[in-house]
Write a sequence for this structure.
């Protein structure tokens, strides 16, 4: 009976989520930071219209466990059960897209918490099982388009990606690498902590000299044809507005529902 109840709960959640997604407009700038820390990972982000979702992983006991720290990994859920299987089911239910009325790609950003030479082979093998669902790349060019784009961050090896004849993912790297063209082909997004470049905490006006810095970084990323994101931001509407107004591609937030309400009821009014 316990197993049956669990299955029925999963089916009910899938139905609820699918109905909710049918009413949701995706937000092209919304990144769910450490999404797995939510009460309902993946589902809350999608119901809020998010198009970029982050999961941290460790290789433990042959499984890719989702966690921020390497504590009690045996009890943690794995990447496949928490994200890949549910996404596959949602995409199948919606006829090939994550959002049923909007054929937009979403980004699954996977933060590697261990050395890439240890964890990337296991991740690649897992992603191969979901080949039709994700985009694949050759020399950084998308050769097979899927409803999900995988982006690797953390201890990602740009050399490993570059040497991979068919890549299941692109890379998210530090903003400081903007002027390094060695691995440009395998980089899709530049990300750095807010405090590395800015002191403003969201109170009062954004200082003009910091606006100049922000504009310069955004312009440099866009000239290179890449996206840009800042994490550890002061996670509040005043900062979200500055980032959106400055054409920052992804707004890093720990509050999906709150950001979605701000975006549609305040920012886009």
């Amino acid at each position: 009976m316990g197993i049956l109840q669990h299955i029925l709960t999963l089916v009910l959640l899938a139905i609820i989520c699918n109905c909710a997604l049918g009413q949701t407009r995706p937000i092209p700038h919304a990144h769910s930071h450490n999404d797995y820390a939510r009460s309902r990972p993946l589902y809350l982000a999608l119901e809020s219209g998010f198009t970029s979702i982050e999961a941290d992983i460790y290789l433990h006991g042959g499984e890719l466990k989702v966690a921020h720290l390497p504590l009690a990994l045996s009890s943690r859920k794995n990447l496949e059960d928490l994200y890949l299987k549910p996404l596959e089911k949602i995409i199948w239910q919606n006829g090939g897209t994550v959002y049923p009325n909007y054929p937009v790609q979403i980004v699954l950003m996977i933060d590697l918490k261990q050395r890439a030479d240890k964890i990337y082979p296991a991740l690649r093998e897992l992603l191969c099982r979901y080949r039709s669902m994700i985009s694949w790349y050759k020399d950084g060019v998308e050769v097979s388009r899927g409803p999900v784009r995988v982006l690797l961050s953390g201890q990602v090896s740009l050399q490993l990606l570059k040497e991979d004849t068919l890549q299941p993912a692109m890379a998210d790297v530090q903003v400081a690498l903007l002027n390094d063209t060695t691995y440009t082909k395998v980089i899709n997004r530049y990300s750095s902590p807010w405090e590395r470049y800015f002191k403003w905490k969201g109170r009062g006006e954004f200082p003009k000299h910091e606006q100049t810095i922000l504009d310069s970084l955004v312009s440099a990323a866009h000239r290179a044809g890449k996206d840009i994101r800042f994490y550890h931001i002061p996670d509040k509407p005043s900062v979200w507005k500055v980032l959106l107004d400055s054409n920052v591609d992804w707004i890093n937030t720990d509050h999906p529902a709150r950001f979605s309400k701000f975006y549609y009821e305040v920012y886009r009014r």
Q: What stands out?
A: Residues 2-188+250-256 form a domain with the TIM Barrel fold (CATH 3.20.20).
